[in-house]
Amino acid sequence: MSDEGRRVFVIFNPASDGGRGEKRIPRYLELLRRHLPQFDHAVSCRSGDEASLAEGALQTGYDTIVAVGGDGTWSAVADRILSLNRTDVTFGVLPGGTGNDFGRNLGIPGNDLEAAVRILAEGRAISIDVGNIIGPSRHEARGDALREDRFFLVLAGFGFDVAVADAAKGAKFLRGELLYKITALQQLFRFPGFSATLEDDHGFSRSGQTLMLTVTNGEHFGGGFPIAPGASVQDGVLHACFIGDAKPLRRLILFDRAGKGRHEESREVDATAAPLFKLSFPHPVRFEIDGDIYAASQRELTVEIRKGALRVLAPLG
Fold first, then answer.
1. What is the pTM of this model?
2. pLDDT in the model for residue 3
3. What is the rounded distance in angstroms from the CA atom of residue 27 to the CA atom of residue 29?
């Protein structure tokens, strides 16, 4: 993508990847100055700063916003761009987090920093789908005000997914897929299951006791799990996966199949794709959006696709 006329603002989250993100900042700045000479940057100081920094940059006239971190950082910045309805803005990501699933879904390497920077300088701008979860909720850790809807890049997850996210907090020595696998294995024997109903707008319905319910945009989540094999961020639908509850040993089998993208073959699993899903629960639930935990204030939620809503920088070809 040509640098001519672009005003690029880069937002670093030093707290990403359990604080390891800070160590990548000098290297990223060196690479950015080499491959993308015209840019400005800022470093967030606390959770939630990334969205505010993005909004300030947009108000100042920047037309390309780059977020450096993991899925939570990327999601917060993209959510602000989308909430402001800035369809004229291009969004870029540099990996520095734990899961980096959105980058993986785009084909952006997680460990090759120079290759990731080159995509910002030389890649192509494409329009991708995003998810929108509708229903009052607030960010659990920040305790911010209730919002009626939120955008997401990778997934909205319920049940087991939230238990794993809780268990992974504070991990010092593990990250990415290995962190998810270790904490998930623990929760296979601890998580009690929950009750949910999933419906789409074409007559599909599944309800009952479940281990996990996810609605995803793209193929991967949880540091690389192919929860929606073959899905993409440009296919115009969301992908729901309802995994019915099972005894611990059966859970182990399901977990192993999920890691290989073969869980959809299992009798406990219903996987379906649609532009809109309605979810209901016996009581308001906690749920995950792109690695962050939110608390709903009502029993019903709607999740819908926003086709081609976000312009992002992706690899060539």
1. 0.92
2. 55
3. 5
